[in-house]
């Protein structure tokens, strides 16, 4: 199949880059248009050998414009059911390459989906990110279970939160608050107790308590 080349729209590209603090160049392709352009490749990718697919993901992730990183993550995500634990570990370095909240949270969704389908191995996946030097990796450990609801492993969630509770990094404290806010929809009492027993940052408390009953 021919290589995907996103058409360039200078005006949109400038707007999209500005939204991401001009950290990355953009082609200027909005998500709905990108979805149309990607559709056939995503379909074909499901029949590719895993090694070939991984090479294709690497190829697109290395390209300059940000939309190609999104494409690479989409390729990984639509094939998530095909990957073994060993395969998943091969994707870990991508998290801290060209890292910002948009790509990291997209990778978190990818890893989270795999964990939801492999609950017995999910703790091993958590361990691959927990306590890592790079805070973007640790953000994934904190938010790995965002969509797990009643299946959330609270031992791991608490472990990740406690580890980084004093970390002076906005994206870590935001992640702690996000994980607590999300889980409070399922177990508000657990979240309330953790917040009462743990000296969390004001940001984490503010974010995490949004859905809790007001005193």
From TrEMBL:
A GO MF label: methyltransferase activity
Entry-linked Pfam families: DNA_alkylation
Keywords associated with the record: Methyltransferase, Transferase
Coiled-coil regions listed in the entry: none
Membrane spanning residue stretches: none
Position of the signal peptide: none
BP terms from Gene Ontology: methylation
PANTHER family named in the record: ARMADILLO-TYPE FOLD, DNA ALKYLATION REPAIR PROTEIN
Name of protein: 6-O-methylguanine DNA methyltransferase
Organismal lineage: Bacteria, Bacillati, Bacillota, Bacilli, Lactobacillales
């Amino acid at each position: 199949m021919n290589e995907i080349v996103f058409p360039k729209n200078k005006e949109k590209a400038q707007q999209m880059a500005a939204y991401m603090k001009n950290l990355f160049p953009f082609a200027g392709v909005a998500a709905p248009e990108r979805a149309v352009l990607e559709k056939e490749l995503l379909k074909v990718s499901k029949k590719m050998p895993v090694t070939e697919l991984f090479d294709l993901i690497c190829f697109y992730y290395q390209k300059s414009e940000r939309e190609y990183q999104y494409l690479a993550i989409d390729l990984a995500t639509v094939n998530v059911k095909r990957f073994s634990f060993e395969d998943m570990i091969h994707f870990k370095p991508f998290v801290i390459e060209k890292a910002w909240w948009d790509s990291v949270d997209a990778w978190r969704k990818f890893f989270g989906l795999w964990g939801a389908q492999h609950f017995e191995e999910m703790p091993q996946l958590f361990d691959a990110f927990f306590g890592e030097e790079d805070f973007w990796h640790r953000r994934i450990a904190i938010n790995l279970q965002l969509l797990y609801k009643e299946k959330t492993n609270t031992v791991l969630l608490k472990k990740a939160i406690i580890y980084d509770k004093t970390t002076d990094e906005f994206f870590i404290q935001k992640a702690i608050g996000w994980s607590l806010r999300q889980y409070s929809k399922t177990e508000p009492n657990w979240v309330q107790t953790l917040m009462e027993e743990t000296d969390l940052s004001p940001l984490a408390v503010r974010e995490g308590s949004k859905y809790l009953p007001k005193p």
